[in-house]
Structures are given as C-alpha cells and as structure tokens.
Design goal:
7 helices
C-alpha cells in the first residue's frame, strides 16, 4: 500500500476513535448555536478547502470573538465555551492523534525535516476535516431532532407554508 493510502486508512481509523468526542462537541454546538447553521457550514467549508490548519483556527477564533453563542458553556464543559473547547480539542487531541499516526511502523514520519513537518500538518488537517464533518453532522441531527420532538419549533414554518398555499387557492 502506498504512503498516501496508508495515511488515509490511519486517519479513518483515528476518526472512529474520536467519534464520541465529535458527538459531544456537536451536542454542545446544537445547544448553544441553535439555528446558526451557516457558521458551522462556514467552518466545514474552510476546513475542506484550505491547505493550512491555521485558517481553521483563525475562523474559530473569529467566530468566538464575534458571536457570544460560541462562548457559551455546556453541561459537558461548564467552564468552557464552544469555540474555546473546539479549538483546544483540534489543537491538542488531534495533534496527539497525528503523532500516533506518524509513529506507525508503516509510515514512520519524523518531525525534523521540512518534508516531515509538512506531512504532519497535512495529517493534522485531514484529522480536523474528519472531526469537523462528524461534529457538524451531530449538530444538524440534534437541531433537527429537536424539531421532531418539539413540534412548536416547526409550527411557525408550517403555518407560513400553509398560508402561502391557501392564498393561491391550494
């Protein structure tokens, strides 16, 4: 198996390991961001389109500074807001996951040469993409599950739709 395929396999394995952490942060996002889907879509877009991990961190810092909802705590993390918690997880936990991948005998990616450091940043970014994707899916699930469990959340939307239909004689 070539090196890139081995990296993808290892990143996918690590994504299964940190899945529950992504679920917890997705729940946190669902409880504090409510209907701010565009902010998480923006995060996902940045993560998927950039080649620099710093772009992802800059987006998180900017959203945390601009939006008080990104600074709200959650029952899983009563002393830490969503943005800080997410940034810390991506910086610390996923960096550890990257280290685990780089030490695999099939890869043995060091940290001395410029090429090794570039490879490490690339793996870190791949892990961040996986984590953010998982977290956003959980966020959407929680927000939309809330609509299903609490019909009052969707009543206004449905009422508006029905009014529009009745005006047209439908």
């Amino acid at each position: 198996m070539n090196k890139e395929m081995q990296i993808i396999l290892e990143v996918n394995n690590q994504a299964d390991v940190f899945y529950q952490d992504a679920v917890k942060l997705g729940d946190h996002a669902g409880s504090v961001l409510k209907r701010s889907r565009s902010q998480l879509t923006g995060l996902e877009t940045i993560a998927e389109s950039t080649s620099k991990i710093s772009d992802v961190f800059d987006y998180i810092k900017k959203q945390t500074a601009r939006n008080s909802s990104w600074r709200q705590a959650h029952k899983d993390s009563p002393n830490e807001g969503f943005g800080v918690r997410l940034k810390k997880y991506l910086e610390t936990n996923l960096k550890e996951s990257m280290g685990i991948i780089c030490k695999k005998p099939q890869l043995e990616i060091g940290d001395k040469s410029e090429e090794d450091q570039r490879e490490r940043r690339h793996i870190h970014l791949l892990l961040m993409r996986q984590f953010i994707r998982q977290m956003v899916v959980e966020y959407e699930f929680q927000v939309n599950l809330g609509d299903t469990l609490n019909p009052q959340n969707t009543q206004g939307k449905d009422a508006g739709r029905n009014q529009g239909n009745s005006k047209r004689g439908l």
